[in-house]
Amino acid sequence: MAVREVVTYQPVPDNAYAVFDHHGRICILATINADLEIVYYTEYDERKKLTVRLPDDAEVTGACARDNAEPVISLRWDHFEFSMFFKENDIGNTWYVSDMKLEYDADQFPEAKPRVGRQMLWMDRQMLHTLHLFGTPVDKAYFCTSKQDLDLYNGDGVRSASVILWDLHLQPYVRNGQFGASVNCPGVPVGRRRINETVPLAVGSTLATVTVLTIAGYAVWRHFKVKKFNYDTME
Question: What is the CATH number of domain 17-195?
């Protein structure tokens, strides 16, 4: 008779979701605060929006990175399931979010059009091809307190929901059961655009430099102007 292995699971950090490998070791850690804003239509074709908050007690499932499989974390509650997929770049030194998926049963929404059934939404394909979302060194965690608004689309390419994230802490390649050193978000993606938070600083620094140079230039001009005036007076 085969002896069944007793699996001891690593403790999960406070307020985090975790995915474990078959040895009980944490391979994905995530702290996610999110509102899901979903657009749907009533039986009278009235357009409505439902806002759902990701609960702290969502059921966590997922898969660790192995062979050619990509790591994924899925959070399930009520009639919803929200998933994040991860990849490494070609040279294996950076990870990023390769996609997000939202599934829900639209028939459960207030006054919803009947028999709509299970809906599945994904991120914009074009944006994902041009942007490594939340790109972070592979041994580190991504951390961002700013709100980030990402659009999700149905199979016809129609924007049907937005995911609003904040206080986000992610690491899909965990090595010791804890978040690694954190890399703070350098820019905040909003919809299809990325707002670079370094731009205001750069502009401010440039303006400050121009101001200093202007004052310095005026001081030099004033110095020679005064000297010339005094010299002419002495003559």
Answer: 2.40.160.110
Residues 6 or more apart whose CB falls under 8 angstroms from that of 183 comprise: 136, 137, 140, 141, 142, 143
Can you point out the beta strands (E) in 117-233?
A: 118-122, 133-137, 141-144, 148-153, 159-171, 182-184, 187-190, 193-196
| Angle at the Cα of 193 from the Cα atoms of 187 and 196, rounded to 5 degrees | 25
Counting every residue written for the chain, the total comes to 235
Question: 87-91, 190-194, 199-203 — which is least confidently predicted?
Answer: 199-203
CA gap 146, 189 in Å, rounded: 10
| Torsional class of 92: left (φ above 0), alpha (ψ -120 to 50), beta (otherwise) | left
The structural domains of the chain, with segments of one domain joined by +, span 17-195, 197-235
Rounded to 5°, angle at Cα 196 from 171 and 126:
70
> Closest Cα partner for 73 from 29, 115, 110, 15?
29
Residue with tokens 């999960």: 12
- pLDDT by residue (tens digit) across 129-139? 778 899 999 99
Distances (CA, A) of 146 to 28, 123, 138, 186, 188: 22, 20, 22, 10, 7
Helix (H, G, I), strand (E, B) or coil at 66: strand
